[in-house]
Design a protein that fits this description.
Length: 534
Amino acid sequence: MGATEAEITAILRSRGMIPVSAIHSQLLELEELESILDCAAKIGFNKGYLTKELLSAMIDTWKGESPVAEKSEQNKPNVANVAELGRTIAPISPPEPLDIQFRNNLPDWNTADFSENASDAPTDILVHYDITGNSITEGKMTDITSCFSDRLQSIRKMIIQNSRLPRSPTEISRLHAESNRYQGYENKAVAIGLVNEPRYTKNGHLIWNLEDETGELTCLLTKRKGDDRDRAHEQILEAGLMPDDVLGVSGTFSQTGDMFYVDDLHFPMEATHQKASSEHGVSAAFLSDVHVGSKTFLEAQWHKMVRWFHTDPLAKTVKYLVLSGDCVDGVGIYPGQDSELSIPDLFGQYSEFARLLELLPEWVECIMLPGNHDAVRPAEPQPTFEKDIQQDYNTTTFVGNPCDFSLHGVRLLSYHGKSIDDFVAGLRTVTYADPVEAMRQMLRRRHLAPQWGGKTPLSPEPEDGLVIREVPDIFVTGHVHGHACVDFKGTTLICSSTWQDQTSYQRMLGFQPKPCMLTIVNLKSHATTSIPFA
């Protein structure tokens, strides 16, 4: 007889192979298992599910090459006689994934837009910002003050550089002292500060306090009618403002000097962005919120994607797979979660996800960051995973959340997206059905999570790690289990799809996720496509 079940499992796992249940008894009888598995490459099989047909092809190849094969066949025990000796207990095996066919045809793509195989290009990952190992906050009031001061100073420079201010900004305390100069329409004042307590009046006007290092200004943006209507103003009034936004205002004081009438608002976003392009025509793929360990994890669709990676010509161009958080479901994240887990052990969830990544082709490099379900601190920016979690993973680069990095010179900003919850609550134009609008608002403000004390816990680092200091060529989030890929002023916005079916909580809210969509972007042509696996 051949190796034991435990030995066979170890041998197959080391090669990235998973046997289907139909061949377990056959594997137990093979005396030259490793020699037979060495023939996998000769039949074009690398990693993935080991079927009866693949095993038979490897055995036939081995028989044609090995001088001991014929002797081994002669000495092979009679299976029927062995079965008569006693009861055979079937080994425990995981269920085979369903062979789900594509619901729709694969999208068209141009070979010229995806011009280079991943195996022909070197790995080129350059991290520009990652909080991992750089968090120095103690959570004191001085840290909070330093964080907001850095935010204000950094974004103020962007507003001055990118906005058409009618004049140089002035400190708020000085504006109050000279308010008589800025009354009427001829002499406008300009200030830049943090937004406090934005609210609407009964008449639909927007009022807020603007604060800088020297003082506070009460600002009023009024609804206009007739010829005075302004589309930009209407958009701000329609959406609202986020608490702790940094923005500029220009306008005039009231006769009493206690109110500042806003004529224009000034945000730090650039008018347009010019994408960088890679010299190599390889691609990056994006997904998020896999939630391994949950009973609603779509395992069959994952294996369908694995087959696509091994067989489709487009997949051979995918050099990088960016995983934007919540790759496992976690433990103790919300009340009653234990009843919805298929893997109740946290480390078991990470080990299972590592096994699933091992099924991908060897040319794929994974970049993995945490989310709010992961075993890291909840406060953002989040450092990456501990070493005892990382040890099960191969060809995976672990980074914090968010992470600003480049792939072959193309700049990416990957953020899990927890603050989308705050944007949905704070801005009237942002909904879970259209999470890309939250991403647009983040770029408009050059900040990923402006609101302090909202739904997103924040870590007050002396240097605010959530300021978008450089405009990315590709900006990717997850978290809300939607899917989108659009261009916004020269930046490709990607809301990564989930690999989890509708949860009981989502069902209660009437929210339908958009699962199992793999977004692919070529780093040279910036052509995009999305592959459905559900």
